[in-house]
Amino acid sequence: MNINLLEIKTLPWRKNIKCSDFDLNLVQKFVSSLGVITNHSGNKPHYVIPSPRENFPNHISGDYIRMPLIEQFTNINEYYFALFHELSHWSEIRVKLNLEELQSELVAEIVSCLLCNKFKIKQDIFINYNVYLSKWIEHIELNPLFVKDSIKYSHKIKRFLLKCQNNNLLNELKK
Fold first, then answer.
1. Which residues of 25-57 are buried (b: 16+ CB within 10 A; e: fewer)?
2. Which has more pLDDT, 41 or 3?
3. What is the pLDDT of residues 96-129, one digit of tens each?
4. CB of 112 within 8 A of CB of 11?
5. Are 112 and 84 in contact (CB under 8 A)?
6. Nearest to 22 by CA among 67, 84, 66, 64
7. For residues 10 and 141, is the Cβ–Cβ distance under 8 A?
8. What does pTM read for this prediction?
9. What is the gyration radius of the CA atoms in the chain, in angstroms?
């Protein structure tokens, strides 16, 4: 993978979707089917990790996503891009990934792009892209497999989320 791809923002996992009309109902069903706890408060999206982490799923606190109100975002696309990013962090513990922060952020950006691609949500922004870009480039120079591994982890998380959705929807139909 060429570092220049990151510098010019031509990313292989990001499609240039021109249509901003996506099926909001479908996206909401997907998110609600996961059973993730979402707390709408604050000004910054954030996954609150379980505490103590080593006791997951028998933790005492945490394990929820804190999201600003949808009205605080520039548009609904930005809201879902951020929510998908946090869903990636939420998924890491469930698929037993123990990633360093830098890789976790790249994986979350890729997962968010993959889910936006799936639901045809236009991707106008990168939440953390510019904050992490120089650090990612440094890391790629030290470890050429950094991006390749991140893409592999991203697809693992996407498959996990889609499997959760399907399993939970099937369970609902059985009731």
1. eebeebbebbebebeeeeeebbbbbbeeeeeee
2. 41
3. 999 999 999 999 999 998 999 899 888 765 555 6
4. no
5. yes
6. 84
7. no
8. 0.83
9. 16
Which residues, listed in sequence order, are joined to residue 65 by a DSSP beta bridge?
38, 47
174 pLDDT exceeds 70?
A: no
User: Tokens 């037993």 appear where?
Assistant: 96
Say which amino acid occupies 157. Answer: I
What are the structure tokens assigned to 3, written together?
A: 């570092």
Query: Three-state SS for 10?
Result: coil
CA 83 – CA 160 distance, rounded (Å): 16
Amino acid at 95: V
Residue type, 162: L
